[in-house]
Amino acid sequence: MTVHTMALHAVDDLSDAYRATRAFLFPIEWGRWLRLALLSVFVAGTSGGGAPSGNVQMPFNGGTTPGQTPGGDLTMDQLGALLSQHLGVIALVALVGLLVLLVVQWLAATFEFAFLESLRTDEVRVRRYVSAFQGLGTRLFAFRLVFGLLTLLIVGTVLLLTLGPILAGVAPGGPLLVLLLVMPVLLVFGILGSIVYVFTTAFVAPIMLLENRGVISAWKRFWGVFKAAWKDFLVYLLVGLFLMIGIGIVVGIAMAVIGIAVALPVVAVLIAAGPLWAGLLAIPFAIVGIVAWALVQVPVQTYLRYWALLVLGDVEPELDLISEQRQAVRGETPS
Predict the structure, then answer these.
(1) Residue 139: which pLDDT band, with cuts at 50, 70 and 90?
(2) Which range marks the domain in which residue 25 is found?
(3) Element spanning 266, H or E
(4) Degrees, nearest 5: CA angle 48-51-54
(5) What's residue 47's pLDDT?
(6) Where do transmembrane segments lie in this chain (predicted)?
(7) Could you tell me the CA-to-CA distances from 315 to 68, 88, 227, 238, 263 in Å, in that order?
(8) Stretch 124-133: mean pLDDT, rounded?
(9) pLDDT of 273-320, one tens digit each?
(10) Residue 52 covered by a domain
(11) Residue 57: beta bridge partners?
(12) What's the DSSP call for residue 318?
């Protein structure tokens, strides 16, 4: 193993990643971009969510019906009875939601390898690559699942031991003091967990693809490289943090512009023709917005993957997944 540590490759490779991304994506072929958009949506991950902001209330708030509290709020007994009556439906919905989440996560893990193979071969073949790399995808999915569950278990246990006594009626002074003491530990644990996740995606997955290894075996391979060139990977993390902030701002502005462009026609129809027509128009416009968001992710994810692959290949040439692209963007002669 020959590890090169003469330069901070994480900085030097930023411009090379841009040139590789430009060569890979342009000139635009819409079929290719749409396939990349599908992959990018999954490898980029999803975010969102929300919380209800009010009480569960009955339709009539002005009076009181038998068994109902003044103001129309459901009592705890009524809420418990309602949940008991629909327990089967709730369990079914929860089960379906869990299965959908697992399928999405499996696709995200498998699409990682489809995306990497697309960058390596300069060909985007979703079905072919998913079929070829579903074994590697399943291994990566299992690792992420177990790692996530262990992280959740550890954090949940700490919070339960510290906040549980308060919920049970114990004076909050002692548990809160313990929580304050363990917060730095949880913070460090969260940072280390995030680093493991980032390195698994950026460096371990390419090693799995290149050398047909499992996750643990690929991590062992990467660990030897990391120990020999830890400064490069530390700089990668620091530069990546600022890079993601910058990308987040740019993507946020782009999506705000797209969102306004999509929303304006719907609002105009709402004012002119009413909610029914606006609702009908909102469906295709929402689809357009989702597709636009996916297309925005294409250059972002392509650039980030190329950057990580360039860093890995510069630090350890034996792990170079994109040697031809590296030579092309640097004007080197193939050896």
Answers:
(1) very high
(2) 9-42+83-330
(3) helix 230-273
(4) 155
(5) 35
(6) 89-119, 140-167, 179-212, 233-264, 276-296
(7) 69, 55, 11, 17, 47
(8) 96
(9) 888 887 888 888 888 888 998 999 999 999 999 999 999 999 999 999
(10) no
(11) 73
(12) G
74 inside domain: no
What 3-state class would DSSP assign to 73?
strand
Q: In the chain, which ranges are continuous DSSP H helix?
A: 9-25, 30-43, 76-85, 87-121, 126-132, 134-167, 173-199, 205-211, 215-228, 230-273, 275-315, 323-330
Q: How big is the chain, counted in residues? A: 335
CB 332, CB 326: distance < 8 Å: yes
What's the CA gap between 307 and 13, in Å, rounded? 6
132-162: b or e for each residue (b if 16 or more CB lie within 10 Å)?
A: ebbebbebbbebbeeeeeebeeeeeebeeeb
Residue 254 buriedness (CB in 10 A; 0-12 / 13-18 / 19+): middle
- Residue 6 dihedral angles phi and psi, to the nearest 5°: -70, -30
Q: Is residue 60 part of a domain?
A: no
pLDDT digits (tens, 9 = 90+) for 41-69: 999 864 333 333 333 333 334 444 444 44
Question: What pLDDT, on the 0 to 100 scale, is given for residue 266?
Answer: 82
80 contacts: CB under 8 Å, gap ≥ 6? none
**How many distinct structural domains can be found in the chain?**
1
- Could you give the CA distance from residue 209 to residue 319 in angstroms, rounded to a whole number? 10
For every residue of 92-113, DSSP letters joined together read HHHHHHHHHHHHHHHHHHHHHH
pLDDT given for residue 295 in this prediction: 94
